[in-house]
């Protein structure tokens, strides 16, 4: 497979971008212009569970707490990718509703 990027080899080990350890000999591929991942806050609930809870019943598959908004964090390059990932994880054909998607703000606590 041909690459338009540069390959780097970690000689002594160290720490990766996510804060996880990187072993000696690990190869990375850097592509110029590759998009950085951002964190998005997605709110999601299940409309079928809401209806059941409203009727005083229980959903056969999901717990009652899915009637309420859940806050989910998703890594994505943009809002469209965040929506696609959220919809794949919480499919509408199972009653899930993606209520909102917002890019998470970086906080500096220094």
Describe the structure.
There is one protein chain. With 110 residues, the protein is an alpha+beta fold. It folds into two domains: 1-34, no CATH class; 38-103, Ubiquitin-like (UB roll) (Roll). Helices cover 17% and strands 33% of the residues. The chain has a three-stranded antiparallel β-sheet with strand order 6-5-7. The protein has a two-stranded antiparallel sheet with strand order 1-4. A two-stranded antiparallel ribbon has the order 2-3. The longest helix has 11 residues, at 79-89. The model is unreliable at 1-34 (pLDDT under 50).
Q: How would a textbook summarize the main sheet? A: 3 strands, antiparallel
Low-confidence stretches: 1-34
- Helix vs. strand class: alpha+beta
Mean pLDDT: 77
User: SSE order, as H and E?
Assistant: EEEEEHEHE
CATH topology of the largest domain: Ubiquitin-like (UB roll)
Binned, the helix content reads 10-25%
* CATH architectural group of the largest domain: Roll
* Overall form: elongated
Q: For the CA atoms, what is the radius of gyration?
A: 20 Å
* Number of spatially distinct domains: 2
State which percent range the strand residues make up.
25-35%
Number of helices: 2
What is the topology, as strand order, of the major beta sheet?
6-5-7
At the first level of CATH, the class of the largest domain is Alpha Beta
What is the CA–CA distance across the termini?
A: 44 Å
Number of strands: 7
């Amino acid at each position: 497979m041909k690459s338009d990027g540069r390959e780097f080899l970690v000689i002594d080990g160290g720490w990766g971008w996510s804060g996880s350890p990187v072993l000696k000999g690990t190869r990375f591929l850097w592509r110029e212009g590759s998009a950085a991942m951002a964190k998005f806050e997605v709110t999601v609930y299940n409309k079928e569970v809401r209806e059941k809870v409203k009727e005083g019943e229980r959903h056969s598959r999901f717990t009652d707490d899915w009637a309420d908004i859940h806050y989910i964090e998703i890594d994505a390059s943009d809002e469209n990718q965040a929506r696609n990932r959220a919809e794949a994880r919480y499919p509408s054909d199972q009653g899930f509703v993606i209520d909102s998607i917002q890019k998470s703000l970086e906080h500096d606590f220094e």
